[in-house]
């Protein structure tokens, strides 16, 4: 169902392999129960417990434990003394997750709960990547297929991009701040360039660790108002909407960043029918209350995996002026 994209990372000496979620929406690496079957800290000769407390609270879910250091390897890259959270308490949100940790070193250390540099920042500092970029390829509706060339089976390429996964030229977008991979979101439409659900610019956070797209409730309402017959679908939770499935044929989904429009496929917007034989389908855009900032949009995988169809895949670069490529 394309809910989560994850892969393997090696920790310790000798190396122990565990699975992690590669998340551009946070900045801490942590492993769940570092005495688990995937990673047993006493078996690593390079493991060090700092004794300092560690905790992270996400949009949904939280973890806590203590801060540790060890050798961390991702693909053909490695950091000798990478800080990470050795987690022994998780909220129920992580109970059914197939991965054993979150590789959240893909945002910037300015938002890291650990207060330490991220894995990617350490790679740049030690000169381990020829070019300070990383890129993602997210496949649709298949267990395997998100791998990129020279990435050892990972859904991302460290210090590189896979030219076989896209056509055309890159579009560089300046970041709003060096925190999340946030850009100026200037358009949001179900009808292409002819309509816009935004009356003001939003901060669009590009987040590989989020499945759907989250916006303020008023923005969600204005977006679905462009699709005749749309209505709230509270049976699936607050903020969900349903719309006539037949509308798919006429939708021209578009998101604007920095006044540049990017189309995305309706296959990724339509989450399925509300029931067997139903003529209504559930949309992938949610309106979020509970203190969600009124100027923020979290752009998740339903848009990012669509980029491979129309535009170059997102390639996140830390150039001097720090920009995002789509």
TrEMBL record:
Keywords per UniProt: Aspartyl protease, Hydrolase, Protease
Gene3D superfamilies from the UniProt entry: Acid Proteases
Catalytic center residues: 23, 207
Single Gene Ontology MF annotation: aspartic-type endopeptidase activity
Domain Peptidase A1: 5-326
InterPro entries from the UniProt entry: Aspartic_peptidase_A1, Pepsin-like_dom, PEPTIDASE_A1, Peptidase_aspartic_dom_sf
Highest taxon above the source species: Eukaryota
Residue spans crossing the bilayer: none
One of the GO BP terms on file: proteolysis
PANTHER family: BETA-SITE APP-CLEAVING ENZYME, ISOFORM A-RELATED
Family: Belongs to the peptidase A1 family.
Name of the protein in question: Aspartic peptidase domain-containing protein
Species name: Dioszegia hungarica
């Amino acid at each position: 169902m394309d809910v989560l994209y994850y892969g393997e990372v090696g920790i310790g000496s000798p190396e122990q392999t565990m699975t992690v979620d590669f998340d551009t929406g946070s900045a801490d690496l942590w492993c769940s129960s570092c005495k688990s079957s995937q990673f047993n800290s006493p078996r690593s000769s390079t493991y060090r417990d700092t004794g300092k407390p560690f905790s992270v609270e996400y949009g949904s879910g939280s973890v806590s434990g203590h801060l540790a250091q060890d050798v961390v390897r991702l693909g053909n890259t490695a950091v000798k003394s990478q800080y990470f959270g050795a987690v022994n308490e998780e909220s129920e949100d992580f109970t059914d997750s197939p991965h054993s940790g979150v590789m959240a070193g893909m945002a910037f250390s300015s938002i890291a709960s650990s207060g330490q540099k991220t894995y990617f920042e350490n790679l740049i500092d030690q000169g381990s990547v020829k070019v300070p970029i990383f890129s993602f390829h997210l496949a649709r509706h298949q267990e395997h297929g998100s791998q990129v060339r020279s990435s050892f089976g990972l859904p991302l390429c460290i210090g590189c991009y896979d030219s076989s996964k896209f056509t055309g030229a890159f579009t560089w977008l300046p970041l709003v701040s060096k925190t999340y991979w946030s850009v100026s979101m200037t358009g949001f439409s179900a009808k292409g360039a002819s309509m816009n659900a935004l009356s003001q610019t939003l901060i669009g956070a590009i987040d590989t660790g989020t499945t759907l797209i989250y916006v303020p409730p008023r923005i969600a309402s204005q977006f679905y108002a462009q699709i005749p017959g749309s209505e709230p679908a509270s049976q699936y939770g607050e903020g969900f909407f349903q719309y006539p499935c037949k509308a798919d044929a006429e939708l021209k989904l578009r998101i604007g960043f920095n006044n540049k429009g990017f189309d995305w496929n309706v296959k990724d917007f339509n989450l399925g029918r509300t029931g067997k034989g139903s003529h209504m389908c559930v949309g992938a855009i949610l309106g979020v209350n509970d203190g969600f900032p009124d100027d923020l949009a979290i752009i998740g995988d339903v848009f990012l995996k669509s980029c491979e169809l129309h535009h170059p895949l997102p390639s996140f670069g830390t150039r001097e002026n720090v920009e995002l490529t789509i």
